[in-house]
Specification:
Elements lengths: L1 H21 L30 H37 L1 H15 L3 H12 L3 H10 L3 H14 L3 H8 L4 H37 L11 H8 L8 H28 L6
Helix pairs in contact: 1-2, 1-10, 2-3, 2-5, 2-6, 2-8, 4-5, 6-8, 7-8, 8-9, 8-10, 9-10
């Protein structure tokens, strides 16, 4: 947990501190120095338009993580509401919402996100909408199962006997009990959203140029893979390290929050 969280923290601090220290402009072009290899002046080299790769990587990393956080938060909120409603109400409400979840799960989420992003047009806001529209199902299933298993517990019955309303019981007692599981789910989901956002940007459905993003930098660098490998290796390595750090953080949180691992 500390290794994954520490790696993410270092990367986030680097995206803020490095541009301020170097003073490099992520949009400044210099065609005479296009595809310049890494050097002391430009640690990660330059891209096809002579722009500093490190500066663009820092800005693109912030934007990619920002989009992933926004999409994950929206998916989590929608999934918790739908899952809690289905698990608490039961009956036909549970059956209808469960079938809705099954319908969304029957289709590849990334392909549907690509289709929706293509319809809405390339922009960061539309990427968040497309990813959130099909990313809530996992959170809904986890929340539904947890709420359904807790609603007959003694502490819930005691709250009912005291006259507490259903919405208050779910908000104050049931959902807090499910929070650790949802936190772990969100951490793993965040890594999947980072990859999905990079995929959309790689296909030209993310941030519009010249705004940098990890997927967009991969798309730009693939054309020069043989003559300037740094143009694709740098964003690919950054994406891999980010996803790995999120996965390690999720594993650590799961082990730390699992009551079965406590003495």
């Amino acid at each position: 947990m500390w290794a994954g969280g520490g790696a993410l923290l270092v990367m986030l601090l680097a995206t803020v501190i490095v541009p301020w220290v170097t003073g490099a402009d992520p949009y400044g072009t210099d065609l005479a120095a296009r595809l310049e290899p890494p050097s002391a002046a430009h640690l990660f080299g330059r891209d096809a338009l002579g722009r500093d790769m490190l500066a663009r990587l820092c800005l693109g990393g912030r934007m990619s993580l920002g989009v992933a956080l926004a999409a994950t938060a929206a998916s989590l909120a929608a999934g918790v509401v739908i899952g809690a409603l289905a698990g608490w109400r039961g009956g036909w409400t549970d059956a209808a919402l469960s079938r809705l979840i099954d319908v969304f799960l029957a289709f590849p989420g990334l392909l549907l996100a690509i289709a929706l992003a293509a319809i809405l047009g390339p922009s960061l806001e539309n990427v968040v909408i497309a990813l959130a529209a099909f990313g809530w199902t996992g959170y809904a299933r986890v929340t539904r199962a947890h709420v359904a298993s807790l609603k007959q517990r003694d502490f819930v019955e005691a709250s009912r006997a005291l006259g507490t309303g259903s919405a208050a019981i779910v908000r104050r007692h049931v959902l807090p009990a499910a929070a650790p599981l949802l936190l772990v789910q969100a951490t793993f989901g965040l890594s999947a959203v980072v990859i999905a956002e990079a995929s959309l940007s790689f296909l030209g459905l993310g941030a519009a140029p010249p705004t940098p993003s990890l997927g967009g930098m991969l798309d730009e660098g693939r054309l020069f893979m043989l003559v300037a490998p740094h143009a694709i290796v740098v964003p690919a390595a950054t994406l891999a390290v980010t996803v790995l750090a999120l996965q390690v953080l999720g594993d650590g949180l799961r082990d730390r929050l699992d009551v079965r691992n406590r003495d």
